[in-house]
Design brief:
By secondary structure, the protein is of the alpha+beta class. The protein has one domain (18-82). It is built from 3 helices and 4 strands, in the order ββαααββ. The chain has helices spanning 19-22, 28-37, 60-67; strands spanning 5-6, 17-18, 71-73, 80-82. It has a two-stranded antiparallel sheet with strand order 1-2. The longest helix has 10 residues, at 28-37.
Amino acid sequence: MIEREVNESATSGDAPVPFDRMAHYKNATVMDRLRQHHQQFGLVLIFDAQGRIEPTNGTCADIIRAFLDHRLMSPFSQNIYDVPDTTMVQ
């Protein structure tokens, strides 16, 4: 498990959420979408025959970027951005 703590899903003043507690990799819908759309977002990910991500030294940054939702597309311009924060807007 990656023991990295992140502030991305926490709102101002909340404690950081550990990467492994975000658990996007346990969500079948998120994983299906990741397999379908990773190339469109310029993410280099390798999947095995069972659809699991095979991490390598060259893909770790994109794996983390994907699970932290740090690669986003503007619905207006269709530009793709790496963002430092993914605080949800309500």
